[in-house]
Amino acid sequence: MDHLYEKTTKTTEIFKGRVIELQIEEVELPNGKTSTREVVKHPGAVAVIPITKVGKIVLVRQYRKALDKVIVEIPAGKLEVGEDPLDSAMRELEEETGYKTEKLEFILSFYTSPGFADEIVYLYATDKLEKGLSQTDDDEFLDVLEVTLEEAEQMVNNQTIHDAKTAYAIQYLKMRELKKP
């Protein structure tokens, strides 16, 4: 696979914010020519598929400025520097929904936009929820919803759920249901 590798020869930092960094990377291509790549650096994120004791999926509804609209998502959040993804997932679940759990099952991790960003999302699931208190960040406003799998599928179809991590989570739950005897 070395014949596909692009060697970075120079990195220029363009922007460094609270959530992302933007870099321009000059690269040497496998054929010896050079090019530039715009790269978004991100510390990573976690997402949780929470299922209540009665089998409902816990979701959050919130406004997303980048989209300029309200969408429904599974609880998720950015990893803090050096934070373990499992610890982050436990924290985000409680902060956003008020639910706590003693056990999260790791499902998988995936890159969100590998063409220009290094963000990786660690996805967990749990059906062992205990009610607690939500404690959202000062700049975070959301509603907590509890929906059936069928209702969640409808939300995907009408694009109320319109992000990849949540659509994947709904698909994962649907496949899991199909595998049950």
From TrEMBL:
It comes from the Bacteria. Residues 40-169 form the Nudix hydrolase domain. One of its GO terms (molecular function) is hydrolase activity. InterPro entries: NUDIX_hydrolase-like_dom_sf (IPR015797), NUDIX_hydrolase_dom (IPR000086). Its EC number is 3.6.-.-. Signal peptide: none annotated. Gene3D superfamilies: Nucleoside Triphosphate Pyrophosphohydrolase. Pfam families: NUDIX. Keywords: Hydrolase. Its cofactor is Mg(2+). PANTHER family: NUDIX HYDROLASE DOMAIN-CONTAINING PROTEIN, UDP/ADP-SUGAR PYROPHOSPHATASE. This is NUDIX hydrolase.
